[in-house]
Amino acid sequence: MDQNTDDVRRKRPPERDLDAMDRKLLGVLVEDATTSYAELGERVGLSPPAAHERVKRLRRSGAIRRVSALIDPDAVGKTLLAFVHVDTTGWGKTQALLAIEECPEVEEIHSVAGDTCMLLKVRTESTHALEGLLARLYDTPGVKATRSYVVLSTYLERPVQPGTTSDWPAVVKG
Amino acid sequence: MDQNTDDVRRKRPPERDLDAMDRKLLGVLVEDATTSYAELGERVGLSPPAAHERVKRLRRSGAIRRVSALIDPDAVGKTLLAFVHVDTTGWGKTQALLAIEECPEVEEIHSVAGDTCMLLKVRTESTHALEGLLARLYDTPGVKATRSYVVLSTYLERPVQPGTTSDWPAVVKG
DNA sequence: GATGAAAGTTACTCAAG
DNA sequence: CTTGAGTAACTTTCATC
């Protein structure tokens, strides 16, 4: 189909499904990937070599995509966060539209189902920079309209978590 | 576009503003935080001790929030991504609403300006799990309505980037 | 998997230019 | 900031049970 999605969605054969131990390891490494294998094993109930072996497998299988330094947006001057809905004429997944991924301010590009076509997560230094990005969007062929949701406060922002609600011991519902 | 020179906004503990070298270091560490200080220094044009000293400062100042293992959503079974707009009666920043951060499926919670109050980024294993989350939202006092944008394809998803478009020497237009 | 041990890197600190 | 040196710590592998 298209090769544009190859960087984001790696289709790898999952050799084995992740068990509870793998999830615990991932949980620790998501919080702090600098954890040594000694402490890692201790926190999940495994010997250091066993922990190392499993983490190595998690990396090789692609379950761990990469180890990244998460930086404070304010520290690099990016104080403005916004979600931009993009309406297009026809099918919005054009090469020209996806080209905005070259802007470091654009952190996410999704096609969505709903009353809009594409959804962008954008982090800029200022409203002026956001305006520049919107201007570029409107210059893109096929872009009909945009709707921006400027973030006032962020209460939670974290990476993909290995756990699910169903992992909880009990779910209390009324 | 020139930026104001008397722009003195020291609200955090950044002792000094990040220079170009710090941004280059961050750029490398965002891509791969396992890079050794030897290679790190080589790639930015610094000696290993100098690179180490700067990275240590970046961590201490909070510019590097944490080093995290970014995991593949598919590997942990989270194949469904959705953005949920939440409309509330009155001011939506209630304690009850923010309590959903306990769900590992909820990755982001923002209050936004626009035709909605709160914006959630949610990643679940299935549509059924998403339904369960929406049910919990509707059980929350003050929640009037929700609008979900289910992601069909993700074309880009990356952490906060240290660079900006203005860093570029020239802007290439398609 | 657990244990123990070995070898190679790297982190980290400190000297001096 | 650079070079160089040095120790401690960790990674990584392997042989053993």
TrEMBL record, chains A, B:
SMART domains: HTH_ASNC. Keywords: DNA-binding, Transcription, Transcription regulation. GO terms for biological process: response to amino acid. It holds the Pfam family HTH_AsnC-type. One of its GO terms (cellular component) is cytosol. It comes from the Bacteria. PROSITE patterns: HTH_ASNC_1, HTH_ASNC_2. Residues 18-79 form the HTH asnC-type domain. One of its GO terms (molecular function) is sequence-specific DNA binding. InterPro entries: AsnC-type_HTH_dom, Dimeric_a/b-barrel, Tscrpt_reg_AsnC-like, Tscrpt_reg_AsnC/Lrp_C, Tscrpt_reg_HTH_AsnC-type_CS, WH-like_DNA-bd_sf, WH_DNA-bd_sf. This is Lrp/AsnC family transcriptional regulator. It comes from Ensifer adhaerens (Sinorhizobium morelense).
